[in-house]
Amino acid sequence: MSTPTAARRDPHVRFGIEVGAERRDIALRPDVRVGDAMRSALLPVGDEGVLVLDSTGRAVPLDTAVGAVVADGGLLHVVRRAVPRGRAKRWAAERQDVVLRRPPVQTGALAVATALGAGTAVAALLPGTLGAWSATVAAVALGIGALAAVLVAAAGPAAAVAGPTLGFATTVLALDAADPATARLSVTAGLVVATLLAGARLLVSRSSGTPDDLAGPLFAALAAVAVVQAVTLLAALPSVVGAAALVGAAPVVVRLVPQLSIAVPDEQLIDLSRVSRTALSVRTPRVRSLGRVNERLVLRTVASAERRKDVATVVATVLPVALLPWVLATAWSAGSTTAAGVAGSVLVTCVVGAFALGPRGQRGRAARWAPRVGAAVVLVEAALLAPVPDRWRVATTIGALVLALAFAAVVPAVARGQRSVLLSHLGDRVEGLAVALSLPAALCAADLVDTLRKVASG
């Protein structure tokens, strides 16, 4: 009885080489080097700036064996790297240990334009600061700068900040705030224009394919502020109500940002139609596979989500720090024993608790430390504005600073201790309570109930 012989295995590796729009299919032994394979295909891999990439976008060393970098039926790409302009950049490109640290000139110009726009907007809100002719010239110049920063696709992420800022300053200059009512109207219109410019910048960045992780969070933040300001203006409510609503919503935003920042494309998800089998799926035609998961694309998606999360966390921390003194001054103006005064104290406690306990499980320095620094600043602001005698104000401020530093030092140490699980569950409950009570406490601190009663009574 004879035994069947095993099929003989082909010792060659078949793969394709793409050079621009041309493709060359070859078959070589697995031990042949990549450089020799490219030279046998008459490709100039030895020239300056020519790279060999695999399907994931990684550079393939020329002295590596073909069988170690490409499988049977795989694909390699030969591309030419763009030659850097300038002698210093060409010299740095040839050295692997040299990194050019000077920021681009365009980013610096946009930063200067943002600072000028913010300063001009503040000066325009002060009556009598700018003349009619100078305000008109400044409005035209800032408007042109805003449109250029938003519509130019290659402006970079700094344009997401410069465009809305210049648009806000242009609107404030055009409306000429002469009294508090006109100033409030000009601020609302400026926020609406800034939101539109931020949305336009987001559309430009997405349509051009240039990554801009600042545009999305800034557009959402400006839209929220503009909507709140417009609603309070149309409802004839005091402007402090809008500020209180933003302060109370900040802990909720910080809590939800990690879940809202990640956006995974469909091609990076598991194709359940291929890995699952049911009575109906076996009778249907086999669907086309989505292909292998690109590791480089996954890392880029995660890094983009982390940057969006950091930007949103910083914005949600800066807003309550900037607006809380206004809310507390209104709440404590009639004393700390009134309903608004007690709500102001509860608001400070909720904001500090949510900002201090929320970042315990976050990744990244900005997501962990920005809310904690914001909590410390909120404590200092509350100590400075607290309705206490003047002789106790300095001691209260120093006590708030010591409390903030002690809390910042104790929380990481407790989290690494043996009882960190029990304390973490307790911290989760306290954080959830602080997040749930922050918005109602903020609205009560702004005396919204009494305001609505007066509006309803006419």
Automatic annotation (TrEMBL):
Transmembrane segments: 105-126, 132-151, 181-204, 216-237, 311-332, 338-357, 369-388, 394-415
Domain of life (superkingdom): Bacteria
Alphabetic keyword roster: Membrane, Transmembrane, Transmembrane helix
Keyword match Transmembrane helix: yes
UniProt keyword Transmembrane helix, yes or no: yes
Protein name (database record): Uncharacterized protein
Species whose genome carries this gene: Cellulomonas chitinilytica
